[in-house]
Design brief:
alpha/beta; 7-stranded parallel β-sheet; 11 helices; 13 strands; 17% strand; globular
Length: 328
């Protein structure tokens, strides 16, 4: 098939491109490289079934042409990371919603199957664990910029489901939970690459807050397995589906595990949220998905552990450092 991946030079999008090309599909990636990196897809350049376009999904004439000629659309383009959300809230909201509006408009016009990624952030301050897709959503006040991302993604979900309701557009919403692995950058506050890189370099590891807040970390290779199956499962159309791992770890335990697995001598330093994100920052204490729906609909079951993730990320950092040293 011909498949379009917006944001395909990003962390998840590039791994998805790898998988779909390996399956024999013809892949077009559009990415403005604002948060994606050319190095993520450089190895695909020159492949007869790969095309990279450096442009934005807000280029409507181009997006209409790309969507008209494709069979499947994975709309992976988005603003990402808590730090980016806090520093550039206007760009976050505009990039997320306007981009999704463009994609859905043309997918609706040409009747294309489309996947819209959302985020575990939409569950907000939800206290019922594990989070289920039908749960009520509870976010914070609008003067807390942290919630701008969650609200923009929630609006994406409403829009995708509205298209399904009105015209039966084959659209699926997938809520991603802390997807991690090789190629992820710590530039925008992503915790696993930050911790692992610091551990490999034997530098202090900064834990925000008291470290008792917990997350579930899913390996990107498990996640893209699920993403690829969703659009080939008609029962998923018009659905919201959690995707990730349901194995919980505190942030402090993550830091300790990164130190142990890399044989590091790094020390752990606790940093108040206010020093990192400004006064009034609110965090979610736990974020655990129910994966029951994904398992029922398309047999989703993650197989890679947190140790696998840390080891894979550490291996990539060591290789990158070795190449940089040789080229220096």
């Amino acid at each position: 098939m011909k498949i379009l991946i917006t944001g395909g030079a990003g962390f998840v999008g590039s791994h998805l491109a790898d998988k779909l090309i390996a399956e024999g599909h013809e892949i077009t990636v559009i990415d403005d490289l604002s948060t994606g990196r050319y190095s993520n897809v450089e190895h695909l350049e020159g492949h007869e079934r790969f095309r990279l376009l450096i442009d934005t999904v807000l280029n409507q004439p181009l997006m209409e042409e790309l969507i008209r000629e494709t069979d499947r659309v994975f709309h992976m383009a988005s603003a990402v990371g808590v730090r980016l959300i806090m520093e550039q809230p206007v760009k976050t909201i505009e990039t997320i919603f306007h981009g999704t509006d463009v994609v859905l408009k043309f997918c609706s016009r040409y009747r294309k199957r489309v996947l819209i990624p959302s985020t575990s952030e939409v569950y907000g301050k939800g206290a019922t664990v594990p989070f289920r897709e039908e749960d009520d959503l509870l976010t914070g006040a609008t003067d807390k910029h942290r919630w701008a991302y969650a609200c923009a993604k929630t609006l994406d979900e409403f829009l995708a489901l509205a298209h399904f309701k009105e015209t039966r557009l084959p659209a699926v919403v997938v809520r991603l939970f802390n997807t991690v692995g090789p190629r992820q950058t710590g530039q925008y506050g992503m915790v696993v690459p930050r911790f692992v890189q610091a551990a490999v370099k034997k530098e202090p590891i900064s834990v925000h807050g008291d470290g008792t807040q917990s997350r579930c970390f899913g390996h990107v290779l498990d996640v893209v397995e699920g993403l690829a199956k969703v659009l080939e499962t008609p029962a998923c159309f018009g659905q919201v589906i959690n995707l990730g791992s349901d194995q919980e770890s505190s942030i402090l335990d993550l830091a300790k595990r990164a130190i142990e697995l890399t044989g590091s001598t790094s020390e752990i330093v606790f940093v108040p949220y206010d020093e990192v994100y400004g006064e009034g920052f609110e965090d979610m204490r736990r974020r655990v998905p129910s994966l029951e729906k994904a398992n029922r609909l398309f047999g989703y079951k993650p197989t890679r552990t947190l140790d696998n993730i840390i080891n894979d990320v550490a291996d990539e950092f060591r290789k990158t450092a070795a190449v940089s040293h040789v080229n220096a």
